[in-house]
Amino acid sequence: MNTVGKKSGSKLYKRLAVMLICVAILFGLVFGYGIFKSIMIGRFLATLTNQVQTVATISAADTPWQANLQSVGSITAVNGASLSAEVSGIVDSIHFESGADVQKGDLLLTLRANNDPAVLAQLQAQEKLAAITEARDEKQLAADAISQAQLDSDRAQLQSAQAQVAAQQALIAEKQIRAPFSGRLGIRLVDLGQYISPGTAVVTLAQLNPVFIDFYMPQQALAQLQPGQVVNVSVDAYPGQNFKGTITALGATLDSATRSIAVRATLDNSKLFLRPGMFGSINVAVGAPQKFITLPQAAITYNPYGDTVFVVHTGKDAKGNADLVAEQVFVTLGNTRGDQVQVLSGLAPGDQVVTAGALKLSNNTPVAINNAIEPSDSPNPTLPNE
Predict the structure, then answer these.
(1) Residue 108's closest CA among 195, 204, 207?
(2) Rounded distance, CA 342 to CA 65, Å?
(3) 201 phi and psi, to 5 degrees?
(4) CA 21 to chain centre
(5) What is the pLDDT of residues 297-333, one digit of tens each?
(6) In which region does residue 45 sit, left (phi positive, over 0), alpha (psi from -120 to 50) or beta (all else)?
(7) What's the rounded Cα separation, in Å, for the pair 250 and 221?
(8) Environment class of residue 192 by beta-carbon count within 10 Å: exposed (0-12), middle (13-18) or buried (19+)?
(9) Which of 114, 267, 313, 355 has the most CB atoms less than 10 A away?
(10) Do the beta carbons of residue 210 and residue 76 sit within 8 Å?
């Protein structure tokens, strides 16, 4: 029995030993695999961080910067009117073509005169007779043939006749529409034989050179505005073109709802590109020109904790080799214009700043520069023509 028991215990110990060895091997494999994976991931990440990244750069430099105020406004004619008849009547003749240029005083339209000329002729005959009578009375008075009272009465008759002629001539003139100023006509709105009542629009007339542009500026800008300042205006109809003008008037009061002041500028329109009713974008130059470092807005990485750029300089990569590397730099930004932004601090003239490819960079990343394609850096960008 003792021999049998010893043999059974010996087998049990062997089994336990084998099991412990297997468990130890299993744990060794698990932990060994984890250590191996960490080593391989570290090596892989090291190779990633050491890869040379291709970027585009720009050399930071001082550029002229003119401060300006921006607004939008509407172009209006210096003189513009919708012409209409003063009296009712039937259109008898039309003396203009739609879109034609006319001079001040040109006859545009007449209404049917009816018996107005005959009435005028009758009144003119009465005026002529009254004039003859008045002249005869003066001679007779000199010969004491009539009294002064008779002369005064006949002179009053003459003046009354003259007034009636003038009134009839004014009535005939009211049936003629003439250009009140030189300009360009719009589209004809009436036809021959049409009956029109007083105030019926016949055609529009606008003086197109020069033209006004009216816009509003906030009250904070009032101290920077004065007549004579240069304005630059752009309109969607002519992309890439600027129309220069000068401020000619400021409003006397501010709008109580918007706290803004009305401003009027006069624009040269000798080529007649601008038309009343056009929408325009306005830039008003204020203050003296200054110099600032400017960068394309694409070069800036905007963050809640601070805006940054990447600067390329000669340094050492992760392996200690001399190379071009990128360094992240915090910058303080100012105003923007078009694609450009002011850099107030953080850079010096001559710094090579990354403008494209910054998303794949970190500190001390080796880089290669390729400026074949650069981001837009225009102070006045325009949309390409479609």
Answers:
(1) 204
(2) 9
(3) -65, 130
(4) 83
(5) 888 999 888 899 999 988 765 566 667 888 899 999 9
(6) alpha
(7) 12
(8) exposed
(9) 355
(10) no
